[in-house]
Every structure is written in structure tokens, then in C-alpha cells.
């Protein structure tokens, strides 16, 4: 260790490098989704929402889990399955609407899932996946196997009734769930302090935990080790049967809320970030870019002597190759047969 | 054994819970039986861990049931009045009904949502509605609406075993009705209608409380020499269309009777479907019995005037027969 201030939070060097590798993979995946709009116009239709800027929060959270644990997420959902080990080629194929996609082309970017790895899916309706995490935690409590569930959602979701109702239930029943509120400072195109009473009063959003008599912590979501630390404590508490925690992970979304939306035939693109397009806050956005968690963690690991230049380059090259393969195979993959549109409404097709 | 519609449902829940430890009951006041005593005794037998009183949070408890179903439980959720389902509609419509589809078949939601509707208890406009047509409009949901205790118990058993979300729409007026049941109630398959009275002149396809009203109407009309066949679809989605068509092809006349507002009601769907499938077999346009297009009033005289009943069915039969 060359940086005496570096605190690995008890993680061995190979795990630290692994966290970084997962962050790079998520970033590369999101970059390739974004580039698809320019490089392969028309290949992605509908809605995509990117997690660039949230990589540290995602990776640090998932690192606190063990096999058997589960999670639910929002429509901004590409990062979690990557951290869990899902097949990125199948994910890209899903985003491209192909038959080989994670969900066979039925769900798309907003509705990835991987139940075998514990990813129980997403809600495209803001905040409505929070009760699912709560219910999965109830099932875990009844099983008695000490599994824990993470419910990921954004700052906007914390204004939904489903959020408040769920936190009340989880605290009341001492459910093994950790609510991870990824506060990316914007609810679509509106700043958090314009629509959140805590934020408007200058208080953290984790203040909401007080209303439900559960711990609420705010953590720098740009630091994967800080997130890992906070989540590890919350997960341990949940696993011990002591109930839920609300973790506010403060991140800065580096892309716009989502791509432009238009009818078929009209090209889609990623617009400028709302900080600039709506608020003219160029310097704020540039500062966020300078604080980008991916190079920030790489620099920390390099300074600590955990990661050398050559391995860092190799991680980047591997991620680039993996995601190039994801794009290439997804582009070549077949679309679902039109007749397949009528499948999967019920477990068995009606007679 | 003589029992009631309410007690038959409670007994079916207990049977399912004894057979399968993953079956759990949750809802408002369920440990004390709820307002209609349907779940009375379950908490004593199975404990508070499997018969769970929830906060008054319809959205979250519906979502909790979904998450629990995706994680291995077989939850039976009670929404106390169908009128309160509005608060849980996102969970039911956008989440439960679509999870399997959006995941390409990976995420099933084997949950049951029990609720009850219907007027006649002077409950006024927010505790008396019949909203089943909303549910029937959502692909991914199954909807059953039993009129008899034997079907309420048998359909509930099938609903709990079903891999997809099933909404069971009970009726508050039917809960205390007494009925002779066999000692062992067999599961009633979802999607199978029952002919409750044979007749050659006209088919009355009746749902929930309107089944007994239609049987009363059939008695009255028999005295005039009109033979009414009363068919209860029991399941609305998936509808047993072959059974309906079989009856209509013999009687050549169809009346659809439900308590819900006729405008946009499920009877309209049945009428359109039957007229398309059996136009040449019909001697007259399909008649519908339903409530007027207005909220439900409180005052006894007003509510009685609002509610469709046996007389409404008799009038509709006369119209469809041209008498």
C-alpha cells in the first residue's frame, strides 16, 4: 500500500480489483447502448435509461450480497445483472428486441431480470417495485434461511405511496430488506429539491427513514467501498432479523434521463443532460464528469498499489471486447417470430 | 353438510393451508375474520405467521403478495372491498398481470386476490360496486366470480393451485346464504361454466348474485310456460365460450345478467362475442341486464330501485322473446 489513507474495508486486493472490473464492464455496456443510437440507427426503439455514474453504487451494493439473496430494481436496470454475472450478450439482445434476449424480446431495456441469480425484475412504473422487494423479504423471513433482499429505486420513487407503505410494513414486520435509494439529483427533468420536502429543507433523503423508525444512512454513491461498507452493515442487520434499513446512495447520473422517444422511422438519440439543457448548469455537470466514479476508483486503487497500469488496461480491453461481442451477436440475432407475441400471457395458453 | 358461502370459502382456505405450507393469507383484519367472518379461525389454526394482518395499504400489500409469490410463497391476499382495489390497481394491472410476459415466461406470479363486491347492504357508492369488467380487460389476470358456496370453495382451491394471478370476486350478499355441500368439496376447474337449470326457450347467462335472481325469474316464467336455461359462467376469464354457444344454439335467445353497470360491463363483451360466433343461431338481439349508469345510492328505496333483480331478468326474457 502506497496510500496510507486508503481503507479497503476489509476487502482483499483481488476483490477490490474485481469491484473495479465490474464498474468498467457496466460503464462499457452503457456506452455501447448509447453508441448504438448513433452507430446503428433504428436498432433500439422505445425507452432506455443508462446507469453511467451509478456504477460504484451498484457494484458496492451487490458486493454485500451472498448467493440466495435477491434484488429488485427500476427501469434503469442494466447495471445490476452485470454485477450479478448475467450474460451481457443476452442483455444487449434484449435491448435490441431479439429472440435471444434475456426475456426473449418481451421486456426490453426496462424489464431485464435474472431470477436464477436473484434478480426478480423491475418496474417501469416509478416506485412500484419497492413492494415486491418487501414481499420477497417476507418470503425469506418465512423460509427462515436468512436471505436478504435489496430494493433499488431512485429519489423520485420516494414520493410514491408504495415507498411509504412498504417502509412501514418492513419496519413493522422486521423484514430482511435493504432499501437502496439511488439519489441521482434529478427526477427525470426536475431537480430533487423541487419535489422533495427533505431536499428542499436541506436535509438528506435518508431522513424519511425516521418516519418508519428504521436506520437511515446517506452514503457517497461514487465510492464503491463506502457503499459496500454501508450496505454490509445494513445487510448484516437484516440478516440478523433486526429489520430494514434505508440507504440513500448519492450518485450523479451522467447521461440524460433517457433517450428521445419517437414513432418508428424517426431516429432516436440521447439528448443533452438536463443539468445543461434545462438548468444551464454547465459547470455542475462538468464537475460531475470530473468526479466520475470509474476513473476515481481506478486512481484510488492505483495510488494504493492495488492496481497497476497494465492490469487496468487489460480490464478496459477485456470489457471493450466483451461488449463488442455483445453488440455484434445482438445485431446478428434473429427477431422473435410474430406468432410468439401471443405467448407467455399465462403459464399455459388458453384452449 | 349445511354451510354458508362465507364458511365454505374459509374452509377451502384452511384445506389449502393444511396441504401446502407455502399458502399464506394476508389482508386487513384477516386474523379476526374480516367484516364478513370469511377467515375466522384461520389465525388460531395456522398462527399469525401465515395469517397476517396488514396495515391499510392496499398498494403495498398487493405488491408484497406479488414479491412473495415470485419468491416461492402462494399468497392469498384479501382486498376487503372491491372498491378498494383502485388503490392496488397498478400492482395488479401493471405488475402481477405482466410479470410473466415481460420476463419471457421467467417470473410467474402464483397469487390469489380475494375480494368482494355487490350492492344491497346500503353501503353507498364506495362500498357496493361491481368492478369485475375492469379486471376482465387485463390480459394476464384470471377472473372468477362464484355464485354458490360449492363454486366459491372449489374455484378458490383451483385458484390457489394456479400458476397465474387469479382474482376471486365474491359477493357480500351471498356470504350468509346457506347451502348443502358434500363433505369433501372438489376443486372446480377455472374456465368451466355450469348449467344450473335446463330450459329450451332462452338462455340466461348470469353472474354472481344475479344467478339466484335468474333462477327465481325462471321459476316465475315457467308458470307462464317459458322454459329458461340458467348458465353460470363461474369464470369470466377465461370464459367457457363453448358452453355458452352450446346453450344458445339450442335456445336461440340469450340474456346476459350481471349486477355491474351495464355500460361497458362484461355482458357487452359476451353479447358481442356470441353475436359474432352464433349470429345465425340467434332469433333476436342479445339482451343485457345490468345496473344503470350511475353511482350506487344509500337510501333503501333508492338502492332497491337501482339494483337489477329477478324482475329485471323476467322483463329482459320477455323482450328477447318478443312477448
Summarize the entry for a quick read.
The complex is a heterodimer of chains A (351) and B (323). By secondary structure, chain A is an alpha/beta fold.
CATH architecture of chain A: 3-Layer(aba) Sandwich
CATH class of the largest domain in chain B: Alpha Beta
Uncertain parts of chain A: none
User: What Rg of chain A, in angstroms, do the CA atoms define?
Assistant: 20 Å
**Which class do the helix and strand fractions of chain A yield?**
alpha/beta
How would a textbook summarize the main sheet of chain B?
7 strands, mixed
Walk me through the structure:
The complex is a heterodimer of chains A (351) and B (323). By secondary structure, chain A is an alpha/beta fold. Chain A has a single domain (13-329), classed as Thiamin diphosphate (ThDP)-binding fold, Pyr/PP domains (Rossmann fold, 3-Layer(aba) Sandwich), CATH 3.40.50. Chain A has 13 helices and eight strands. In chain A, the strands form two sheets. Chain A has a six-stranded parallel β-sheet with strand order 2-1-3-4-8-7, sandwiched between helices. In chain A, helix 1 (13-39) crosses helix 2 and helix 4 crosses helix 13. The longest helix of chain A is centred in the first third of the chain and has 27 residues, at 13-39. Chain B is of the alpha/beta class and 323 residues long. Chain B has two domains: 2-180, Rossmann fold (3-Layer(aba) Sandwich); 194-321, Rossmann fold, CATH 3.40.50. Chain B has helices at 5-19, 42-46, 58-70, 89-96, 99-102, 132-136, 149-161, 209-222, 241-251, 266-277, 300-306, 310-321; strands at residues 2-4, 23-27, 51-53, 74-79, 112-117, 142-144, 166-171, 178-180, 194-197, 202-206, 228-232, 235-237, 254-261, 287-291. In chain B, helix 1 (5-19) packs parallel to helix 7, helix 3 (58-70) packs parallel to helix 4 and helix 8 packs across helix 12 (310-321). The radius of gyration of chain B is 19 Å and the shape is globular. Chain B starts with a strand and ends with a helix. The model of chain B has no long low-confidence stretch (mean pLDDT 97). Classes of the chains: A alpha/beta (351), B alpha/beta (323). Chains A and B meet through strand 2, helix 5 and helix 6 of A and helix 3, helix 4 and helix 5 of B.
Amino acid at each position: 500500500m502506497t496510500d496510507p489513507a486508503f481503507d479497503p474495508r476489509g476487502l482483499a486486493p483481488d476483490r477490490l480489483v474485481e469491484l473495479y472490473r465490474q464498474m468498467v464492464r457496466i460503464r462499457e455496456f452503457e456506452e455501447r447502448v448509447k453508441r448504438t443510437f448513433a452507430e446503428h440507427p433504428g436498432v433500439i426503439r422505445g425507452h432506455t435509461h443508462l446507469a453511467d455514474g451509478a456504477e460504484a453504487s451498484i457494484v458496492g451494493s451487490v458486493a454485500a450480497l451472498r448467493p440466495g439473496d435477491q434484488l429488485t430494481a427500476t427501469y434503469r436496470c442494466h447495471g445490476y445483472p452485470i454485477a450479478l454475472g448475467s450474460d451481457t450478450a443476452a442483455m444487449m439482445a434484449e435491448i435490441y428486441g431479439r429472440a435471444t434476449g434475456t426475456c426473449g424480446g418481451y421486456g426490453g431495456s426496462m424489464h431485464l431480470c435474472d431470477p436464477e441469480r436473484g434478480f426478480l425484475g423491475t418496474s417501469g412504473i416509478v416506485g412500484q417495485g419497492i413492494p415486491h422487494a418487501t414481499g420477497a423479504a417476507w418470503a425469506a423471513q418465512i423460509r427462515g434461511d436468512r436471505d436478504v433482499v435489496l430494493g433499488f429505486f431512485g429519489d423520485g420513487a420516494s414520493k410514491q405511496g408504495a415507498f411509504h407503505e412498504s417502509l412501514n410494513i418492513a419496519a413493522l414486520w422486521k423484514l430482511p430488506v435493504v432499501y437502496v435509494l439511488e439519489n441521482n439529483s434529478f427526477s427525470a427533468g426536475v431537480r430533487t429539491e423541487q419535489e422533495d420536502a427533505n431536499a428542499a429543507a436541506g436535509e438528506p433523503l435518508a431522513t424519511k427513514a425516521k418516519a418508519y423508525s428504521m436506520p437511515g444512512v446517506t452514503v457517497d454513491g461514487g465510492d464503491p467501498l463506502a457503499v459496500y461498507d454501508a450496505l454490509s452493515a445494513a445487510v448484516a442487520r437484516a440478516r440478523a432479523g433486526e429489520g430494514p434499513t434505508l440507504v440513500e446512495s448519492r450518485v450523479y447520473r451522467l447521461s440524460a434521463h433517457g433517450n428521445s422517444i419517437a414513432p418508428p422511422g424517426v431516429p432516436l438519440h440521447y439528448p443533452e443532460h438536463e443539468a445543461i439543457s434545462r438548468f444551464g448548469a454547465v459547470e455542475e455537470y462538468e464537475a460531475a464528469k470530473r468526479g466520475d466514479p470509474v476513473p476515481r476508483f481506478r486512481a484510488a486503487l492505483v495510488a494504493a498499489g492495488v492496481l497497476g497500469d497494465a492490469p487496468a488496461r487489460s480490464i478496459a480491453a477485456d470489457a471493450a471486447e466483451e461488449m463488442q461481442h455483445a453488440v455484434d451477436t445482438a445485431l446478428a440475432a434473429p427477431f422473435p417470430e410474430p406468432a410468439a407475441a401471443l405467448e407467455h400471457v399465462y403459464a399455459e395458453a388458453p384452449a | 353438510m349445511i354451510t354458508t358461502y362465507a364458511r365454505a370459502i374459509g374452509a377451502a382456505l384452511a384445506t389449502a393451508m393444511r396441504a401446502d405450507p407455502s399458502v399464506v393469507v394476508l389482508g386487513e383484519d384477516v386474523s379476526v375474520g374480516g367484516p364478513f367472518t370469511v377467515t375466522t379461525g384461520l389465525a388460531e389454526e395456522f398462527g399469525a405467521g401465515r395469517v397476517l394482518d396488514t396495515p391499510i395499504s392496499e398498494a403495498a400489500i398487493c405488491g408484497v403478495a406479488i414479491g412473495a409469490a415470485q419468491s416461492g410463497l402462494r399468497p392469498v391476499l384479501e382486498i376487503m372491498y372491491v372498491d378498494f382495489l383502485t388503490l392496488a390497481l397498478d400492482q395488479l394491472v401493471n405488475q402481477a398481470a405482466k410479470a410473466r410476459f415481460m420476463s419471457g415466461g421467467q417470473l410467474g406470479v402464483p397469487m390469489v386476490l380475494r375480494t368482494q363486491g355487490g350492492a344491497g347492504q346500503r353501503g353507498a357508492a364506495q362500498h357496493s360496486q361491481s368492478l369485475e369488467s375492469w379486471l376482465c380487460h387485463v390480459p394476464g389476470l384470471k377472473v372468477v366470480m362464484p355464485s354458490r358456496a360449492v363454486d366459491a370453495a372449489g374455484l378458490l382451491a383451483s385458484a390457489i393451485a394456479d400458476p397465474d394471478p387469479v382474482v376471486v370476486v365474491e359477493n357480500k350478499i351471498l356470504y350468509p346464504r346457506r347451502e348443502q355441500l358434500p363433505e369433501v368439496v372438489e376443486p372446480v376447474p377455472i374456465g368451466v361454466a355450469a348449467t344450473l337449470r335446463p330450459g329450451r326457450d332462452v338462455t340466461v347467462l348470469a353472474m354472481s348474485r344475479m344467478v339466484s335472481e335468474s333462477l327465481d325469474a325462471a321459476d316465475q316464467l315457467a308458470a307462464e310456460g317459458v322454459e329458461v336455461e340458467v348458465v353460470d359462467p363461474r369464470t369470466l376469464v377465461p370464459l367457457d365460450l363453448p358452453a355458452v354457444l352450446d346453450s344458445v344454439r339450442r335456445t336461440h335467445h340469450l340474456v346476459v345478467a350481471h349486477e355491474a353497470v351495464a355500460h361497458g360491463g362484461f355482458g357487452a363483451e359476451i353479447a358481442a362475442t356470441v353475436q359474432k360466433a352464433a349470429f345465425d343461431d340467434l332469433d333476436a338481439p342479445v339482451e343485457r341486464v345490468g345496473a344503470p349508469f350511475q353511482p350506487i345510492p344509500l337510501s333503501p328505496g333508492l338502492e332497491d330501485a337501482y339494483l337489477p333483480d329477478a324482475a329485471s331478468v323476467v322483463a329482459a326474457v320477455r323482450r328477447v322473446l318478443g312477448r
